[in-house]
Amino acid sequence: MNMREQIEKEYGGSCACGKAHEVILEDIRIGSHILDEIPDLVRKHGSKVFMISDRNTWNAAGKDVAAILEKDGILAGS
Q1: Which long-range contacts (CB under 8 A, 24 or more apart) does 59-66 make?
Q2: CA 20 to 30 Å from 12, out of 20, 22, 51, 57?
Q3: Residue 10 neighbours by CB distance under 10 Å
Q4: Whole-prediction pTM value?
C-alpha cells in the first residue's frame, strides 16, 4: 500500500459526523534541510495547513514547521 492509499484508508471516507471527507495528497518531500521549502509549497497549493503528528514527530520537526509557517505569515494550527 502506498502513502496515498494509506492516508485515504485512515482519514478518508465516512466520518462520525455523517459526511464523507476526501484527502488529496499532492506533494511529499523527504530529505535533509527542506523545511524552508514548506511556505512555498503551501502557497503553491493554497493557503490552508493541516498538520498531523505524534509527540515524537512534533518534537523532531513539527514545532519547527509551525514556527516557519508563523514567521512567513501562514497560519499554522497545533
Answers
A1: 61/35, 64/35, 65/35, 65/38
A2: 57
A3: 10
A4: 0.58
